[in-house]
Amino acid sequence: MKLYSAPGFSSLADHIAMLEAGIQFDLVKVDLETKLIEGGGRYMDINPTGYVPALMFDDGEVLTENVAILAWIADRAPELAPRGHLGRVRLLEMLSFIATEIHTRFPTYLSLPEEVREPTGQQIVHWFGFVAGRLERGYLFGETFTVADAYLFQLAWGAAQLGFTLPEPLGEYIARIEQRPAVQAALHREGLA
């Protein structure tokens, strides 16, 4: 199995979650500018959208999109999903929220001239504030780390790197999650630590 990833991008969440789950995979780095794969090949032949992540199974089938890949990981590692009769749908609800309200605003923010970024930046901070309110017991779903926390961590960590002032307790959350062995391993494998 291969995880196609670009260092520091949202595929870091999938990388972390796969390590947390103990899933064996090869990490394949993608240059998002040239759309070339480390070691040779065109990424567009793997994922025609050109976005990361993409997860290629041993049979050649490809799964894309953070929500889908993270849900697939949680199905294989139930300890990385919320419990209860609504656990799976609550996970999909949170993953979809993170993807649509936080993640999708970053490309817009980064593509805007600096002098007109403020409204989009305020929207990003607003939605980070919303999810920060879910962290009173440590993680998005209480006292247990889930694949949704891997996704939120990656986006909050990236936002902090960009200089965003994030609402508390996100600063402590980032620092605590960054110490997890799987996170440290993913950051090192991607050349980010």
TrEMBL record:
PANTHER family (alphabetical): GLUTATHIONE S-TRANSFERASE GSTA (PTHR44051:SF8), GLUTATHIONE S-TRANSFERASE-RELATED (PTHR44051)
Name of the molecule in the record: Glutathione S-transferase N-terminal domain-containing protein
Organism: Rhizobium changzhiense
InterPro entries attached to this UniProt entry: Glutathione-S-Trfase_C_sf (IPR036282), Glutathione_S-Trfase_N (IPR004045), GST_C (IPR004046), Thioredoxin-like_sf (IPR036249)
Domain (GST N-terminal) ranges: 1-81
